[in-house]
Amino acid sequence: MAQGQIKGLSKQKASGGRQAAKAAAAPKKGKRYIAPKKTAAVKQAALHKELSAKINRSIEQQVAAAASSGKLTIMKNVALEGSSSEKAAKAKKS
């Protein structure tokens, strides 16, 4: 009788748990943001955040306006146009 296991047929141990623990222990890549403590720096950070939000909102509105007026369309507009054309087609058939 064979006294040991046959090579190659033994099941390999799952090492997924160990890799997950290793990934959780490693620090994340990228810069860290530390909130300012000085009053002037806090005000400057708040102003920067507000201005960035306004700029982003403005850019998004411009892109949406350009997309809806040309060949590019936003899916909401396409859905609205599709439903209105279906209603018109049903009205003509009736």
> Strand count, sense and closure of the main sheet?
none
What does the average pLDDT come to? 74
Shape: elongated
Helix amount: 55-70%
For the secondary structure, the number of strands is 0
Task: Name the beta content range.
Answer: under 5%
Topology readout:
Layout: H1 16-25, H2 39-69, H3 75-93
Structure explained in plain terms:
The chain is mainly α. The mean pLDDT is about 75. Helix content is about 65%, strand content about 0%. The chain has helices at about 15-25, 40-70, 75-94. It is built from 3 helices and no strands.
Write a concise synopsis of the structure shown.
The chain is mainly α and 94 residues long. The chain has helices at 16-25, 39-69, 75-93. The chain is elongated.
Label this structure with key terms.
94 residues; mainly alpha; 3 helices
